[in-house]
Amino acid sequence: MKNFYILTDALEYIEKxxxxxxxxxxxxxxxxxxxxSLQKMFRLVLFRSVKDYIQRRRxxxxxxxxxxxxxxxxxxxxxxxxxxxxxxxxxFKRVWNESPASYRRTWRFSExxxxxxxxxxxxxxxxxxxxxxxxGEAYDKVVKMKGSYVICFDIIGMVQINEVSFAAGxxxxxxxxxxxxxxxGDDMIMLRIGGDEFALITxxxxxxxxxxxxxxxxxxxxxxxxxEKQKVPLSLRAGIIQIPAEDLKYDNFFAEMHKAIEECxxxxxxxxxxxxxxxxxxxxx
Length: 285
Hints:
Layout: H1 2-16, H2 24-31, H3 35-45, H4 50-68, H5 73-79, H6 85-96, H7 100-106, E1 116-119, E2 130-133, H8 136-143, E3 149-155, H9 158-164, H10 166-181, E4 189-192, E5 197-201, H11 207-218, E6 224-227, E7 230-233, E8 236-242, H12 250-273
Helix pairs in contact: 1-2, 9-10
């Protein structure tokens, strides 16, 4: 349980100081642990170093400013403690695979590294402490879209992609988001609801239209993303749920999105077990 609270404190410190000049050592000092212990915890739970996590959160918030404000890119770079516009552009491109200027012209989505929301039930082991993406900022908008449909997406075979490289997994996430972003309307809301899970809140009550939107994303299944000298095939699965027209509770809504994805996985597993199913649904890497 102690480790759980240390990680929670570390994430909270990072959020409060995200626009300030601080380093990984400062986070460890605040939490009262050694830097090596904190690094081990971050790599175990978040699969990243403390420094990498801080930079990705800054890039995420910088991307939001690029899309939602008229700030100059140079001002955004300095706001998030990048020493110069070139260093910001290099860091930004490592995350988004394109320059800040190009991103501003072509994207709607920014939350590639959303804030995490940890919860802990009294008496549970720290291994039982769950983490989920904090979608609280979008909740007020979602409430206004009650009764409309949500498309829940998930990357197929993410474990296999990460076995190639975690960096390849990052590229797969960006490409998946791009496929969804390209079919999203200006009035829709995109969310990253897990490591390789995403949601598009369409605002539409027309199921046929929503199914067509889902199909526009899934028609790209099997197309490859380049990774170093390899070409890695990328496919998504999708499930559709409807936002309750009455009471909309945050936790229930979040759980229902994940249930839709799990149901897709279950159906795929049943199909894969059939004798006449000749090919695996997982990408051939």
